Amino acid sequence: MTLEHSEAGAQKALHVVACIDASRSALGVCDYAAWASLRMGEPLTLLHALDEEKHPAKTDMTGNIGLGSREQLQEEMVSLDRERSKLAMKHGNLMLDEAEKRVLAAGVDNVTKRQRHDDLAGAVVGLEPESRLFVLGLQGESSTATGRHIGSQLETVIRSVHRPVLLVPDEFSEPRSAMLAFDGSPTAFRSIELLAGTPVFKGMPLHLVMVGSDTEEHRAQLRRAEEALAEQGMEIHQAIRDGDVEQTLHAYQQENDIDVLIMGAYGHSRIRQFLVGSTTTRMLETAHKPLVILR
């Protein structure tokens, strides 16, 4: 997660962005975002995306109304659209107000509220230059309504932004341990550098887990990664496991009672193929604890 800190006053602070909607994940998003903001010492932005596909600003009735009723019905539809848009904005502002109360109660003292007329992916991309971390719920508003386990826009967001994304369950549990799915590639070592430069996981046990063959080359790569994290004072554990990526990572996480799984898009490795391929949805569907995606 980026997470290097700039010199005092050298540049504008970057924000932790909590993506709020009407889903049951909203409380968990607030709590995890507040936790990350406090750990990182960064301000917190509460974002609500007012998706016009759900709340259209205008209904196009051209060609659908005949005879003498066209003009009158068009006027009525315009009035209804206007009221619907106002209600959607009011609802969003009320959600943001409640979210603000919750994060302030958690100890965050620098909070900004933002409402944007866009879908979720467009909204987060628009805020990316001023953001350090995005926090989203594994279940979104539309997924709750349709019975889907994961948010319908989640994969689009993951593929659209290049900042770290923290995906969280409905209920908050303070993270006390983490694991990084590591493959030894140059990009994987960049992730190690990012972890070494952030206070988010400082002081936690960190497990470096490779999915692949137990070879001397892989062991040497893990040792290099551990050395790069030495100054963080982390308790580092190394593991090499063979098997299916999703099943192996989840099994290791469960066996060792690890709170946060960290993954990255690493070159053309098995993990990258897994992350950006057709099994992404399966991984998200089987996640019951926070998941960090590093891009």
What keywords describe this structure?
295 residues, Rossmann fold, 2 domains, 10 helices
Which CATH-level-2 architecture of the largest domain? 3-Layer(aba) Sandwich
Rounded average pLDDT: 81
Contiguous uncertain segments of 5+ residues: 1-10, 55-59, 143-149, 274-279
Structural class of the secondary structure composition? alpha/beta
Describe the sheet with the most strands. Answer: 10 strands, mixed
CATH superfamily of the largest domain: HUPs
Helix content: 40-55%
Shape: elongated
How many domains is the backbone divided into? 2
The helix-strand sequence is EHEHEHEHHEEHEHEHEHHE
Q: Strand order within the widest sheet?
A: 3-2-1-4-5-10-9-6-7-8
Q: Cα distance, first to last residue?
A: 9 Å
| Helix count, DSSP H or I runs of 4 or more residues | 10
* Percentage of residues in DSSP E strands: 15-25%
- CATH fold label of the largest domain: Rossmann fold
In angstroms, what is the radius of gyration?
A: 22 Å
CATH class of the largest domain: Alpha Beta
The tally of beta strands, per DSSP, is: 10
